[in-house]
Specification:
Strand content: 15-25%
Structural class: alpha/beta
CATH architecture of the largest domain: 3-Layer(aba) Sandwich
Largest sheet: 7 strands, mixed
Shape: globular
CATH class of the largest domain: Alpha Beta
Order of helices and strands: HHHHHHEHEHHEEEHEHEHH
Radius of gyration: 19 Å
Number of strands: 7
Distance between the termini: 23 Å
Length: 270
C-alpha cells in the first residue's frame, strides 16, 4: 500500500486511471516494472486492451513497452499521410513465443500455428483487430492470388493484409505486399472504409534496408519482426535502458507520468 501511494501520488493525469485496474494488476506493475514510464505504459495498455493478469505479466516479460516504441517502427510515407497516428496501433516486434515453433520452422508452420492460436495472436496484435480470412483469395486479371492473413481494424476502419516471411526482409517483398493492398482497395474494400494497410511480418530485418525500400513505396505499409522465443532478461534490460534513455530528453510532462496518454483519453479519464 505504501508503494502504491508513493507511485501514484501527485500524478493528476494518471491517478484517475488507477481505479480502472484490479489490485492484482497493480501488484504486478509495482513489482515487475522499474521505470515510471514503463509502469504507466503497461497500465494504459492493460486498460485499453483489457488484459488479464496473466496477459499483463506476459507483455512485461516480452518487453511490450520497447516493442511498441514508435521511433523504432519502419513505415512508408504513405502510411503516415493516409493514416496519421495509425503507427501507434502496430508494433516494431511481435512476440509469438506462445506458438512453440522450432528454429527451422517453415512459412506453412508459422501460418498454421497462427491459425491454431488465433485468439492469442489477436491479443498480441490488439483488441481492435478482427479476423477476416486466411489465404484470402483475390483475383486480378485471370490470375488468382492468396493473401496470407487479412484482418479488419475497427479503430482505423480498414483492412490489414499480413504477409508472412520466415527469413530476413528483402526489398522485393514490398512489391508483393503493395500489390495485395491495391487489390484489397479495388475489389474488397467497402465504400465507407478507409484505404487498406499492409504489414510485412518477417523473422529479421536490416532497418536501413527497410528504410530505403519503404521510402518510395506509395502504399500504406510497414515492416515488423516476429520473435518465437522470450527475450533474455539481459537483452530486455538493455532495450528498456536504451528506450528510457532516449525518452529522457523528451520527458517534459512535469512528472505527472502521463506522457503518451492520448488527449481524448486524458479528457475522459480513461
Amino acid at each position: 500500500m505504501r508503494q502504491f501511494f508513493e507511485a501514484y501520488r501527485g500524478q493528476k493525469k494518471v491517478s484517475p486511471l488507477v481505479t480502472q485496474l484490479p489490485w492484482t494488476h497493480h501488484l504486478i506493475l509495482l513489482s515487475q516494472t522499474k521505470h515510471r514510464e514503463e509502469r504507466d505504459f503497461y497500465m494504459l495498455a492493460a486498460i485499453k486492451e483489457r488484459w488479464s493478469k496473466r496477459e499483463l505479466e506476459r507483455q512485461i516479460r516480452t518487453g511490450a513497452a520497447a516493442r511498441k516504441e514508435s521511433r523504432l517502427k519502419k513505415v512508408s510515407p504513405a502510411m503516415t499521410q493516409i493514416h496519421p497516428g495509425a503507427v501507434e496501433d502496430f508494433k516494431n516486434e511481435y512476440s509469438l513465443e506462445f506458438l512453440g515453433l522450432s528454429q527451422d520452422h517453415s512459412e506453412a508452420d508459422l501460418h498454421a500455428a497462427l491459425l491454431r492460436n488465433l485468439g492469442r495472436f489477436i491479443t498480441e496484435l490488439g483488441r481492435d483487430f478482427c479476423f477476416v480470412g486466411s489465404e484470402y483469395p483475390v483475383q486480378v486479371g485471370k490470375q488468382d492470388f492468396a493473401i496470407d492473413l487479412v484482418f479488419f481494424h475497427r479503430g482505423l476502419s480498414c483492412l490489414v493484409a499480413f504477409e508472412l516471411k520466415v527469413r530476413k526482409f528483402v526489398p522485393e517483398d514490398l512489391g508483393k505486399l503493395s500489390f495485395y493492398v491495391e487489390a484489397l482497395d479495388r475489389d474488397v474494400k467497402m465504400p465507407h472504409e478507409r484505404p487498406s494497410i499492409g504489414v510485412l511480418l518477417c523473422a529479421t530485418k536490416d532497418d536501413e534496408v527497410v528504410e530505403y525500400a519503404l521510402a518510395r513505396t506509395t502504399s500504406p505499409t510497414l515492416v515488423a519482426e516476429y520473435q518465437t522465443l522470450l527475450p533474455s532478461r539481459a537483452l530486455l534490460r538493455r532495450k528498456l535502458h536504451e528506450l528510457y534513455a532516449a525518452l529522457a530528453p523528451h520527458d517534459a510532462d512535469g512528472g505527472d507520468g502521463a506522457q503518451g496518454i492520448p488527449a481524448s483519453r486524458k479528457r475522459r479519464g480513461r
